[in-house]
Amino acid sequence: MATPGSHDRITSNSPTRRSVLRAAAIGAGAVTLPSVLAACGSGSGAGGGGGKSVTFGSNWSDPVPKKGIANAVAAFQSSSGYTVKTNTVDHNSFQQNINRYLQGNPDDVFGWFAGYRMQYFAQKGLLGDISDVWSGFSGMSDAIKAQSTGLDGKQYFVPYYYYPWAVFYRKSVFAQHGYQIPTTWDQYISLAKQMQKDGLVPISFSDKDGWPAMGTFDYINMRLNGYDFHKSLMGGHEDWSGTKVKQVFDTWRQLLPYYQQGALGLTWQESAQALQQKKTGMMTLGMFIGQQFAGADQADLDFFAYPALDPTNGQDAVEAPIDGFLLSHKAKNETGAKKLLTFLGTPKAENAYLSADSSELGVNSSVDTSGYNSLQQSGAKLVSTAKSISQFMDRDSRPDFVSTVMIQALQTFLNNPSDVDGLCNSIQRQKTAIYATEG
């Protein structure tokens, strides 16, 4: 998810988050060993050297998204005559080792993220230009295209789906206890207190993987300080030791008594399962939380927009990251890779994925939404009515800053929330040092 420094700043033809997903929504509805990604790169020489074989590095490692990707790959193979060798690596390991992977022996095509996180690697010459692929696309809005475009005006990313973040809960639990949906922070805290009295852990929370906590920081910052400040902070243009950022942490601290115990040792899946089992009352996460629910349980899952903290900002901003595909600059079968990317940009490919994973929303306006469940319909509405849309801290910020500073900083706060001044001063010092380099 990434931070432009002055030399990285997004130009005027980049999208405002006010419009990036609205058209799509309306139409659609920690390991760092060098060997971690060897499986991804190892197939490139054998399978990507031309002909009718393409290699694909996939970070869709959980069962539900893995099945969705397999569906899309199978559809491509049956219609194209190509063979795709899919090399699946654990999502977090893939993300943490992406730079080494791209500079080593990457697959022809690989999964990644839109926005600045893509632009950063494009600027470094690690991605292949797919502007010719984009010239044949239909059903992609200008805003979606802008999120797929590098700072040089060329396209590098094939968007696949997006997933809004919100506060998820089980309808039956709220009905059982007579809970009302909170729209303000005070109501949110009062609800958490009541859940605690009722014997529930109020909020499922985890950060073992280093990124889930970012969503809560993003929302509190946007609710307190507004989307424009948040975007500027993520872009490296604000002071992390300033009053506004300290207020974010001070506000967040009010939630900590209501979190699951041992959150730093829990994965998001484990925390989501606690919500599924009705042990907890709420959880702030992306809509992919639905992957941990099935059948009647999934029909019982719902969400509400993150509560307002300042009436000026209200609940206007929504976090809604976009996932998709990129061409490696070292693709050994560029022709085959581009054929695969061309297919992945079609409604047929998105429908194949969504048939297995009902927790995402397709970006192509021609995606079949007739099968969308109530959660997907609500998610599409949430995004389509948002005034501003963010991608996520580790996609809107410079990757080296997030990986070396913010993951540890947020975990330090969660473990010891008493020294906000020291924490923010430390973040600012490290940020200054990192942004003094070219990155």
Automatic annotation (TrEMBL):
Pfam family, one: SBP_bac_1
Domain of life: Bacteria
InterPro entries: Bact_solute-bd_prot1 (IPR050490), SBP (IPR006059), TAT_signal (IPR006311)
PANTHER family: ARABINOSE-BINDING PROTEIN-RELATED, BLR3389 PROTEIN
The name this protein goes by in its record: Carbohydrate ABC transporter substrate-binding protein
Organism the protein comes from: Streptacidiphilus pinicola
Lineage summary: Bacteria, Bacillati, Actinomycetota, Actinomycetes, Kitasatosporales
